[in-house]
């Protein structure tokens, strides 16, 4: 009875329905390797745009907070920051450089959420580079994202 049909599973191009209107394309299938819905992935990428405008400052702030909340983590960075007092870390060129590298890597990872082969290769490579750091534990990656005690 004049009822519009929706796009069939094979119709991803936005073809016309029986009533002449153009159906919106169906969302692409979600890759089971990434435990995010397409909407969550979009939200992350959209939210990141605000952070990306000021990545260096955000990165430094993130690390300073991390070190204040988990002072034991500073021991992992002692060589890198050469005993800079915690209250002076925000002005440390070494921390600024490290924060910039981390934020750039996060930027690359978030932008590659649509290419999961590259995304997982990037995460693997970052993990390998941290494996041989004396005192580093994988839980430290989560510390900046979550307020957990180890």
From TrEMBL:
PROSITE patterns (UniProt xref): GLOBIN
InterPro entries: Globin, Globin-like_OT, Globin-like_sf, Globin/Proto
Record domain Globin: where: 35-150
SUPFAM superfamilies per the UniProt record, alphabetical: Globin-like (SSF46458)
Domain of life where this protein originates: Eukaryota
Cited Pfam families: Globin (PF00042)
Biased composition (Polar residues): 1-21
Keywords, comma-separated and alphabetical: Heme, Iron, Metal-binding, Oxygen transport, Transport
Protein name listed in UniProt: Globin-3-like
Lineage of source species: Eukaryota, Metazoa, Ecdysozoa, Scalidophora, Priapulida
């Amino acid at each position: 009875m004049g009822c519009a049909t929706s796009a069939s599973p094979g119709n991803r191009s936005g073809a016309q329905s029986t009533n002449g209107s153009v159906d919106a394309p169906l969302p692409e299938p979600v890759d089971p390797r990434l435990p995010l819905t397409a909407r969550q992935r979009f939200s992350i990428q959209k939210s990141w745009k605000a952070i990306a405008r000021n990545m260096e400052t955000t990165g430094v702030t993130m690390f300073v907070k991390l070190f204040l909340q988990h002072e034991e983590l500073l021991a992992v960075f002692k060589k890198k920051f050469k005993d800079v007092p915690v209250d002076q870390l925000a002005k440390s060129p070494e921390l600024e450089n490290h924060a910039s590298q981390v934020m750039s890597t996060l930027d690359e990872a978030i932008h590659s959420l649509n290419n999961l082969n590259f995304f997982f290769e990037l995460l693997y490579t970052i993990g390998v580079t941290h494996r041989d750091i004396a005192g580093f534990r994988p839980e430290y990656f989560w510390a900046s994202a979550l307020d957990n005690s180890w």
